[in-house]
Amino acid sequence: MATISDATHLADPAKLYAEYPFGSDEVFQQGLSSILSSGTLSRAEGESDEDILRRAKLFYFKRVTGYDVSETDARVAEQSLPPPQAEAAQIVTEEEPQHLTFAQLKELIEQGKTDEIPNNKKIPDALNTAAPSEAKEQPRKKPWELASSANSD
Predict the structure, then answer these.
(1) Whole-prediction pTM value?
(2) Contact, 83 vs 23, CB < 8 A?
């Protein structure tokens, strides 16, 4: 849990909310993932995912710091101060492998740009030129061969 210093008592709670490192707070991330996976969030009509996330952040912020920030103040503070996590999220998404739709994949193949298809492996046209290996075990007997060997015993 975060501690509140004397300097933060003098600061604007909305600004503190906007600057709070929700992205790096492991307790918040674990709580958010458990809430999202359980499906216990109640969504009001016309409420976006952004609003739900803001409500979760406000609840956690009030619990950790003791400051009560309204949703309107939080929205204004978020818009006035872009969080540094947004830049990190953009960098991460650029490094992730891109997933193509079927239409995009079809278009790349039709244009002959198969080298731009992610995870596209070149398969050689020739068969394996190495000599086949020798069998080390005897082949299994067929059911009729088993019956004839049992009768001969």
Answers:
(1) 0.46
(2) yes
